[in-house]
Amino acid sequence: MIGKKAGEQRARVITALDQLRRQIGLALGAATNARKSAENQLAKLELEQSIVQAGIEHAAADPQVVERAKEPEMAGVFAWLDTVRKQFYGEWSDGPNRLRELVAASAPGAAGKPPGEWLGRVGTHSGVIAPELWRVGSATVDGGDAGRTPGTEMTFDVAVPLLDESHLSITSAPKTRPSIDALVENLLMRVLSTFEPGAVRVHLWDVGQLTAVLPNFYALSRTSALTVHDPTRLVDLLDELAGHIRRIHAHTMQAGYTSLQAMRRDTGRRVEPWRIAVLYGNGEELQPEQLRELKRVASGALAAGISLVLVDVPTALGGAVESISLLDERRAISSMTGSDLAVHLDRPLPAGQVGTAASRIAEALIAKQGGPRSFADLLPTEFGKQRSAWELRAPVGFYEGEPVEVVIGDASPHALIGGPSGSGKTNFLYALLGSLCARYSPDELALYLLDFKEGVSFAGLAPGRRDESWLPHARLVGVNVNTDREFGLALLRFLADELRRRSAAAKDHEVTHLAELREQDPEGHWPRIVAVIDEFQYLFAGRDTVTALATSLLEDIARRGRSQGIHLVLASQDVAGIEAFWGKPAVFEQCTLRIAMPKARRVLSETNQAAVAAPKWHAVVNHDSGVAHGNQLAHIPDASAKGVFPGLQQRLWERYATSHQRPRLFDGAHAPVLEESRAFGDLEHVARPKALLGQSIEVAESARGVELSGAPGRNVAVLGTTQKEALSIMNSAARSLARQYQPGEALFVLCCLVETCANAVTELSDRLAAEGHKVELVAPGELSARVHTLADDLSAVDSKRIVTLYGVDAALPALEQKSPGQASGLDQLRVLLKQGPTNGLHVLGWWRGVSRLKDTLGFTGTDDIGAWAALDVQGSELSPFCAGQVVHWSPRPGRALFFDRSTHSAPEVIIPFHQPDPGGDE
Ligand SMILES: Nc1ncnc2c1ncn2[C@@H]1O[C@H](COP(=O)(O)OP(=O)(O)OP(=O)(O)O)[C@@H](O)[C@H]1O
């Protein structure tokens, strides 16, 4: 509605202006017109000219003229000129009045009224629609020329279009610099006094002066309303303007508007401030590069709410440009009024009053911007109102009181955040997450959060002991993953799978973009996914398969994630993290959103140093791959203060928790407890039980186990000297198996040859017995004999037998002994390993070294150990048990390398369950 009205008014103004131009041209250039129309009648023209020059009344009294006019071919000259004059004056006689009305309507308030009515008052105009004209002076025509009494003067206002409408080019005459300053000052003051503070930003550049450009405005230079630029760095200013143009253009186009003006009218919001750049040249041509850039800026500026005022900068700008050329100190010719009419420029505004007015505007602006904003200022009044079909958009901070947004979408699908330790990177992430989660519901946004740093930075987002709330948008929270690079890999695999799932769904619906998929499949669950990986450089920390896989997965996700709504936010503390990236340009280039914390280097682009000088608790937000013109400085509110983020989380939790699942927490510092794991809890009686060895490192919580079928080789070896983990794996295996057998269905034969584990094994034995199972605790000295009987009865016994041996290596000397003519205990153990599985007997054995296991197996090869879990054993020792492949494994506490011939192509890292230690020495 507003738009339509404004549009009509604008059309009226333009028509009236055109008319005005024509009329003035006619009035003052009647002779020219007459001459043209009489080109083929030179004599007639001359006569007409002399008549017009003299004036019709004068000419009629001139006998010479009267004589010539009597000539036949001159017949009608007088009559014709009289008609023209009557017709024109009929229209023009009211021109000055009409013009006055027009300026009053199009230049309301400070835009057109005398300074006494507004100078020194702070404007209140909201800045959605700008006045169309701005007064610069007045013009006077003689009443005679206007069909009135000759000799009387008729004055009308002269105003120029500026904001959204036109650039302005001003040309000086000798010694007119003070007049030009007064003209510019008058114009700028009218603009600044019209709008509420903050709606307009003025940039001043003067090729000849560093500081003293428009000194009366000095007070404003403390604020964002006025920036004085370095005379030697015009290109910087032009770059900055080009950056605004690109950014605003992208924003408005995305919202479906061709200009900022159209967007403002339609949305009723200012969206962006207007910008006026005043460039003072010296009449000399600019350097070609500057000129090119200036023209480029000028062509896109108006649609982005940017107007240029060029003073003595000789250039022909394309598009709408009005001009004012000074004739002397008070008079000028303007393109608005035509070349025949001198404009009397308004008197300079009183310097003192301009200074006072500038101070008042500056103070009002500072008061309005307030002090530093808080985290609460980032949050919308109503939660969960935004839709993420096209993009995610949320403010993360403020610049001069105005919010600075981060956009994650088609143009900026992935983000790279960098800053040294303590620069506020984690705080930034919290500000971003809070702002996003408050705007988008968990159905619109799903978060996968991973922190490779030691510490608990994201831990609070998952349910905890002290705070039961969690962030409903979070699907996964991974903390303390510094040593578990595999978990990073698992997340990337998960994302790549999701990418495929989304691509397939998009293909089914014959669409290519998430927004279209959501439209076609309204019942589907297609939130945008944001995966935050803090200290992501850990992914590339070794020259191994993890690095290689992480690289290719990241590249895939980075490249294809955009259209499927899967976004990466990669954060890194040090340059090393970023440098890990330089060799991986595919990922780096896709991170078009760059966020640099103070002192961060190389995050933006090699040459963009903006972050180096950024103040504390600020960030440079750049959606243009770090190119300087995309820089947006923002103060980031404190999101890490006590209770701040948890406060928001509590509100979100109360709102969404009942309808959404809690996130999975993966904490690399805490091994899961067997009894608490879902995999253990879900076990039930089955025909082919699985011995659980530990938890897998995956996005979904799951455990790894070995199925003890009747196939040959279905025995399990635990390798290494670390007792705690070895005990854990052995016990989890036995206990999980016990859960899957009916009481009496299986016999557990336990033998512990490691003294320090005796208590734990006894405890296990008691527990199994208590569960109703048949258990035999064999003393070390009796093992050989028992192995014999087990081997002898191998096919004769009907029940399952689980032979669980702790420290087999310690039994080897005893097992090796043999009576002449008889098989040794070792021979019989080999029989069990080889023939046991097909006869319902499986060995779970712990060997404290690979060579001891080899000794045990003898020449029979490694096939009888179908699955193993290795602890402090070097990878190279393991290849014989892994079909000869190269095994990368650097042993680390609390982790095991697991391989099952029947299910794995390569070994994987698992986490042995945590065992509350009942009696072991550790
Ligand atoms: N915008 C801010 N306003 C006020 N305090 C802040 C702000 N940003 C960070 N801080 C404070 O500075 C401390 C360090 O910030 P933060 O943990 O975000 O830094 P970091 O760059 O992530 O460092 P590190 O990588 O070592 O964790 C925080 O404890 C927080 O209290």
From TrEMBL:
Example of a GO MF term: DNA binding
InterPro entries: FtsK/SpoIIIE/SftA, FtsK_dom, P-loop_NTPase
Keyword Iron-sulfur: no
Protein name in the entry: FtsK/SpoIIIE family protein
Pfam families xref list: FtsK_SpoIIIE (PF01580)
Binding site for ATP: 419-426
Keyword presence, Nucleotide-binding: yes
Organism field: Amycolatopsis cihanbeyliensis
Keywords of this entry: ATP-binding, Nucleotide-binding
Classification via Gene3D superfamilies: P-loop containing nucleotide triphosphate hydrolases
FtsK domain boundaries: 401-606
SUPFAM superfamilies: P-loop containing nucleoside triphosphate hydrolases
